[in-house]
Amino acid sequence: MAARDRYSRKLECSRCGNSGFAEVSEDDNPRRQNPGFLVDEMPAGFSDERKSNDPAKYMIRCRCGSVFPFKQKSHYAPGGEPRA
């Protein structure tokens, strides 16, 4: 079983300004076809709209009804940047 990379990612709604940090993880083996992306903890006011194993296809819903992709331009928590 492969180890998991864990990091925090700031989610911010462009419509209402709601923000918070999501705790996420993915497989640390770059040779795997599927990164095994999971949102382990979602901040208050956000929910899953469409789950995906690929962070580029994972969609988030804000409490105001706005839907946006997880992989939007956003800020990372200090020390939470993903490793290359």
UniProtKB/TrEMBL annotation:
<feature type="region of interest" description="Disordered">
    <location>
        <begin position="22"/>
        <end position="52"/>
    </location>
</feature>
<protein>
    <submittedName>
        <fullName>Uncharacterized protein</fullName>
    </submittedName>
</protein>
